[in-house]
Amino acid sequence: LAMPWPILAVMWAGLFRGGLTHYLMGLALVRRDGRFAGILRCAWRGLLVWTPVAACFIGSTVLLLYYWGTWTPQDNQSWMLLLSTSLWYLGVLMLFAWFAISVCWPRRGPHDVLSGTYLVPR
Question: What pTM does this model have?
Answer without folding.
Answer: 0.83
